[in-house]
Prior knowledge:
55% helix; elongated; two-stranded antiparallel sheet
Amino acid sequence: MPFGKIPETKQLISYLNINTITVRKKGSVGDGFLYGALGGAVLGGILDGVTGSPYGRGLGIFLVGILFLSIGGLIGAVVGGNKHTYKINKNKDNLQAMREKMWLKIYPSMKKNN
């Protein structure tokens, strides 16, 4: 199924028809960009404030902050956009292992005690 669309018929799909399942948290790219941009702007402002700037303190902090904001935003978007691909290879055990991993990510308190 392209682009993660769920079929409207909501029919069951046999594991014999599944090679891989790709999962990505919804909104993670935007969150990654936002956190990266904010972190980059703060870091850039601090670095310029400490090292000094030929443009003067206010404009230098602003310009370096914008530069680091852009770099941090791009890095954050890439990190936030990470996907995880589970290889099922038409194997029931692989599908069950993927389901257990996903269940534990959603409900970590349900971890089995050995």
